Amino acid sequence: MSTYPTTEREPVTDTLHGESIEDPYRWLEGDDDRVDEWEQRQNEYTETVIQTDRRASLEPAFEELGWRENYFLPTVRGGRYFQRIEPAEAEQPRLTVRDEPDGDPRTLVDPTDLDETVSLQWFEPNWDGTLVVYGLMDAGTEQYDLRVLDVDARDVVDSIDDVGRCNGASWDDRGFYYSATGAADEGGQLDKQLRYHELDGEDRLVTADFDPERWPAVQVGPESGVVLVTVGELGTDSELFALDDGDLKPVLTDLDAPLTPTLQEGRVYVHTTAGAPRGRVLAHDAATVADASELDDFDTVVPESADTIQQLAPVGDGVAIHRIRDASSVVSLHEADGTERYELSLPEFAGIPRGGLGSNRESAELFCFLQGLDRPTSIIHAETGPDAGPDGWAVLQSPTLPEALDPQQGLDLTVERRWVESTDAASVPVYVVHRSDIDLDGDAPAVLYGYGGFRIPLLPSLDPYRLPFLRDGGVFALACLRGGSEFGEEWHEQGAREHKEHTFDDFEAVAEDLVEAGYTSADRLAGWGGSNGGLTVGAALTRRPDLFGALVCSVPLLDMLRFHTFLLGQAWTGEYGSPEDEAAFEWLRSYSPYHNVKQRPYPATLFATAAGDTRVHPSHARKMTARLQEATTGEDPICYHSVEETGHGTGTPTSLEIEQTLDKWAFVYETLDVSSDTGS
């Protein structure tokens, strides 16, 4: 058995709904010197597991793959094309502008001029493209400072510091609206404000009347001047208001469903699952939308269908819609009245991430992310004018990968979609990718990745760091678990709150199928997930440790009886339920990984977290590591690894991203006994 660093037991007992709950490692919830020393000892132990010849042999490929170009969606304003681009040699993306879609970009802002850990995560140009507001954060904390840039002069002309968790802004002709929160290190992230900033003038509060669980977002119509405010809770519902003389006037409330408005050509389009579990699109005249008060006041312009509507984006005089069909992406183009014109002829098993359609009100050009299990994330450009059709698109930008690892060149991969039966007769789609020439004899190393929550769909995608594993004979499986939105709101609800264990059922059913179908064996199968996906992995670890040879559990939720007391946790009670509610306590207690550890052998497990995470507190991973190291009776290592200068994953410098990801894959190679060459 491994000799782990010593972790002192200092039990604290809580009584919840009549049950005594002992927490022997409550002290690891702190952020003091004692915890820092514990983390240092754990990191040193983990280094003995992962710092091996296998890691050294993987490093050159990871360096090549990490230092690649990355492209983000362009935004068109005033005839200019604004875009974040990360050059191959850069630590962070830069904000650029150009005058043509395929023109040479000019750098407006390089955040690493301040420090390599500073990142520019979002930007919003004004309507004529002369000014742009953007958000800067440091070390992945998602705590922002705002800057306003004069595009022609390349000078910062205004700034707002310390706005907390701010993820965007919306311009009118005098300034912009934005949301702000209190600081994470002061426990203020759930204290939210909607504010208006007038250039060279007043910065004023519009309203701070938001419940802790609910988040505001604002949108201004460039033609109408209408200001719409959406207030929503993650995993549950949204409400729509019109800002009228400084007051929020209810438009669509009490729907018990999510909604997303889009202002386009004097109309308000609303994408919602209210009365349509797979989504529909409604519309109303923008000038009179403040007079609306119920769904019947809106016209249905795109009715519900067998597809799941994921996103609507304005393009030219009409709209584009991202649909999910059998767990892959479809893009349809529509007239302003909702009439469908055609679908783009995308490749089989195409994937478009959330928010992957670009908005373009100025011209009939659509910009869109496109990815697949054998296709790196690219930007495509489609003409959507009157003479355009399904084939009128082309790849505009795509990263350059090493030829031997590029699935479009030297690495021949096979991709298939399987359907796996789970509990309650659910049919779960899972994508499987592997080298085309390997012999699937039931002993290939395999990684199963899952998430399953918050209506986030897992669609086909390629993380380039996965390619060495595929080159070396590995099998990668991407499971579309209940809790996501691959099949609409019902699919989400079947994996939320009292039905959350369906997510874990699906993950385990796919693991069993990979073995039964002859791809791998249990001792050569690794489960992998992060954040809510870390909860999925943690539940699989405590429910079915026999299914896996290794697990990678990143920035995870694991103590489901105290998750709501840390950072953003209270905002997730709509998805999971609150332990303070007796009924919810029962289902949370039944699966909470931290509370279901027993004396038994456990597979090799790596808990990975980061000091700057302002979403999921590192204490989840710390406490679970300590409890599992104490409980396991097996020989496989239980590891903890924490890094500085980054957070939940956003804004990580390239050099640190390479190191973090290499550590995780080195753990998989060691524990599954994978050789880093052309065989397994």
TrEMBL record:
<keyword id="KW-0378">Hydrolase</keyword>
<feature type="compositionally biased region" description="Basic and acidic residues">
    <location>
        <begin position="7"/>
        <end position="21"/>
    </location>
</feature>
<dbReference type="InterPro" id="IPR029058">
    <property type="entry name" value="AB_hydrolase_fold"/>
</dbReference>
<dbReference type="Pfam" id="PF00326">
    <property type="entry name" value="Peptidase_S9"/>
</dbReference>
<dbReference type="InterPro" id="IPR002470">
    <property type="entry name" value="Peptidase_S9A"/>
</dbReference>
<dbReference type="GO" id="GO:0004252">
    <property type="term" value="F:serine-type endopeptidase activity"/>
</dbReference>
<keyword id="KW-0720">Serine protease</keyword>
<dbReference type="InterPro" id="IPR001375">
    <property type="entry name" value="Peptidase_S9_cat"/>
</dbReference>
<dbReference type="GO" id="GO:0006508">
    <property type="term" value="P:proteolysis"/>
</dbReference>
<dbReference type="InterPro" id="IPR023302">
    <property type="entry name" value="Pept_S9A_N"/>
</dbReference>
<dbReference type="Pfam" id="PF02897">
    <property type="entry name" value="Peptidase_S9_N"/>
</dbReference>
<keyword id="KW-0645">Protease</keyword>
<feature type="domain" description="Peptidase S9A N-terminal">
    <location>
        <begin position="5"/>
        <end position="383"/>
    </location>
</feature>
<dbReference type="GO" id="GO:0070012">
    <property type="term" value="F:oligopeptidase activity"/>
</dbReference>
<protein>
    <recommendedName>
        <fullName>prolyl oligopeptidase</fullName>
        <ecNumber>3.4.21.26</ecNumber>
    </recommendedName>
</protein>
<dbReference type="InterPro" id="IPR051167">
    <property type="entry name" value="Prolyl_oligopep/macrocyclase"/>
</dbReference>
<feature type="domain" description="Peptidase S9 prolyl oligopeptidase catalytic">
    <location>
        <begin position="465"/>
        <end position="673"/>
    </location>
</feature>
<dbReference type="GO" id="GO:0005829">
    <property type="term" value="C:cytosol"/>
</dbReference>
<feature type="region of interest" description="Disordered">
    <location>
        <begin position="1"/>
        <end position="21"/>
    </location>
</feature>
